[in-house]
Amino acid sequence: MGKVHVLDHPLIQHKLTYIRDKNTGTKEFRELVDEVAMLMAFEITRDLPLQEITTETPVMEATTKVLAGKKIGLIPILRAGLGMVDGMLSLIPAARVGHVGLYRDPESLQPVEYYIKLPSDISERELIVLDPMLATGGSANDAIHSLKKRGAKQIRLMCLIAAPEGVKKIQEEHPDVDVYLAALDEKLDDHGYIVPGLGDAGDRLYGTK
Ligand code: URA
Question: What modulates its activity (predicted)?
Fold first, then answer.
């Protein structure tokens, strides 16, 4: 079963409090999501493999470490996932970015991909799927299925806040996918909002209603 990592660094928790606050306006909300995504990028990359190289310092020749060429792909789920991309790229600037947009057909209940554009070599990349809110887990589940159908082999899911229902869905459907969160909240309400959550992440990021 995929592991759930709650990245409870004090800076992440502090900033998340202001992200949750209903009095935080669009500009500040966007900046805070960006900062938290950057801090989460630091944590989610902790286990990237390193390789040793030889470096000439001004003093002597030393054995040093660099990333072992692991290629990263960031996959924001449209639209709210876009709010996490820049923060991630500030620490992983060479990452490629693929986009997935989907909705459920109201009659067939099947996922419909209305937009999908991915790096050509997704099967060789460690993919990090980005979506701020893991509520029922429906979109993240569908997006991960879409990526696997196209050859993705290594996938992580990174969200700001999850409900236990969403985590359970991903663990059941994708036992190979680890989930990285800033917080695991209590539950979903009758309208599918995470409680206590932060409201609608897309609307708060983009100032829509
Ligand atoms: N999507 C959101 O943006 N917020 C929620 O609480 C649930 C789903």
Answer: Allosterically activated by GTP.
Q: Is the ipTM of this complex over 0.90?
A: yes
193 within ligand 1 shell (Cβ under 6 A)? yes
CB 137 near ligand 1, within 6 Å = no
Say what the pTM is: 0.96
Task: Return the amino acid letter for 4.
Answer: V
Report whether 133 belongs to an annotated binding site. Answer: yes
* CA dist list (Å): 186 to 26, 95, 165: 25, 33, 10
119 Cβ inside 6 Å of ligand 1: no
Given a cut of 90, is residue 34 above it in pLDDT?
yes
Give the distance (Å) from ligand 1 centre to CA of residue 158: 15
